[in-house]
Each structure stands twice: as structure tokens, then as C-alpha cells.
Amino acid sequence: MKIRSIGFSVFASVIAGGCAAPAVAVRASSVPILTKDGSSADIHRSATAVLSQLTQSMDGRGFHLSGEYPAKDGSTDKVYAFKGRREAVTIGAISSSIDGYTRGQIATYQYGSIFYVRIQAPNPTEARVFILGKPMLNGQELCSDDDSELKAFQYWCQDSKLANGEKLLPTLRGKEEADTVRGVLVELKRLDEKKE
């Protein structure tokens, strides 16, 4: 696994589609749906065991490890990024006219998700896990109000603005990411049950 020693940042000025529709700001993640406590778990296993189960759980859902980032605040915490595609959706309208030409505007959007998983290891047999899931559109992650949870890793994300945003907003709220986070945390908590 390659470790990056520098901070990471995202410039997310996404302009989807080529139309003149006004851009709509989008800020979405799993945390408002689950709450911060619902996005975290204390697991009585080593950080290595937790990472192994986490990777297996995420891979099984189609989200693969794409980066590992050490904290910049002097702690031994790390953030692991997992990302993958969800679905491609075509939006638009076609109309025909009397002259026989077909007119309209159609755009295909590739939806995906990225998950930032912070693992804190207060001792060798315990790990605290926090998962922030965010939607992606056409390979670009969207910013969220919860990005501040990653400030120790020098992460920042500018506003995400989308043309056609009003059509896309219902699928970019973080619900799919929240469902994934919930399932992964359940699987991680089973590590404690296996230990007993």
C-alpha cells in the first residue's frame, strides 16, 4: 500500500452538462443522515484487523481502496479512501418537429461514492472508526459540510456547483452513502462478537 506524506485537496467545481442552467451548490454526505455518532464505532480489535475487515466489506460493495493518508497533527491516525461507481443515469428530453429533425438535450451522468475512513488507535487492541461517505458525479467527489472532520489530514474541498443541479439533487443527498456506512459499521462491530 502506498502512503502519501502530503495533504490532499479536492477542487470540486463540477459543471455537469453543457446547458446554460444556473449552477446549484451541492453539499452532501452520509453524516447528516446518520449523525456523527452513527458514523462511528469503537471496535475492540487492532487497527490492522479493523482495516482488513473494512477493506473486505468495502470491496464486497464495489468500493476499493484508493488512498491512505497520515494525519498532519502529530497523531498516528490515518484516513483511508475507498471509491467506486454506482450507476450511470441519462437525463434529458427529446422532441421532434414538423421539419423532421429531432431536438433535445440528453446527458449521461456517472454516479459514484467515496468514503473517507478515519481509524484512531488509542491502544494496540482498540480502534475508533469514523466513516464519511460522499457522492461522486462523473468521477468528481462533491464537497460537504462534514469535510471539516478531515482537517487533521489537511483535506479541504471547495464548493461543488452543478448545472442541472435541480434535476440531480435528489440522487446526491448522501443516502446511498449512509446505507453503505451503516452496513459496513455493522460488519465491523461483528468483530467484537467474534472475539467473545
Strand percentage lies at: 35-45%
Largest beta-sheet details: 6 strands, antiparallel
Q: What would the principal axes of the Cα set say about the shape?
A: elongated
Number of strand elements: 10
End-to-end Cα distance: 31 Å
* Count of separate DSSP helical elements: 4
What is the average of the pLDDT values? 81
SS-derived structural category: alpha+beta
Series of H and E elements:
EEHEHEEEEEEEHH
Provide the domain count: 1
Q: Are there runs of 5+ residues with pLDDT below 50, and where? A: 1-19
Structure, described:
This protein is an alpha+beta fold and 196 residues long. It has one domain. It is 24% helix and 39% strand. The protein has four helices and ten strands. The protein has helices at 31-38, 47-60, 165-168, 175-195, and strands at 9-10, 24-26, 40-43, 64-70, 78-96, 102-123, 126-137, 140-141, 156-157, 160-162. The strands form three sheets. Strands 3, 4, 5, 6, 7 and 8 form a six-stranded antiparallel β-sheet that branches. A two-stranded parallel sheet has the order 1-9. Helix 2 crosses helix 4. The longest helix is centred in the last third of the chain and has 21 residues, at 175-195. It is elongated and about 75 Å long.
